[in-house]
Write the structure tokens for this entry.
Amino acid sequence: MDDSCLFCKIATGAIPVAPLYEDEDVLAFSDIAPQAPVHFLVIPKKHIIGPAAIGQEDEQLLGKMLRTAATIAQEQGIGDQYRVVANNGAKAGQTVFHLHLHILGGRAMQWPPG
Ligand code: 5GP
Ligand code: ZN
């Protein structure tokens, strides 16, 4: 827990969100500024600053995050067509320095991303 971290505050409930899924390890909620018809985030409750800070001890957690994403994507009707994004570092677009997976779907996607 990092007291200055927005997603830690969301993970602990200090800042309330409507969860799409929650358990002791992960929380999923809709992005406040959606970039696609479906755009939600999956975060670990543990404070990990970003993809490059994932430790060996987090490998199972990351698998759970991806499986959670797949389950919610199915529930949201995009289960067979969605993109998973994890930005690492400000130049890569990271603005919240607590690991999160973006799941985007419901429209056609371009490649490469900008
Ligand atoms: P990043 O740019 O770090 O990859 O992604 C951070 C994401 O968090 C952005 O898509 C942004 O819209 C979202 N976000 C930032 N603050 C909040 C918030 O208070 N609530 C929710 N639901 N999403 C947020
Ligand atoms: Zn955090």
About this structure: The chain has a mean pLDDT of 97. The chain has one domain: 6-105.
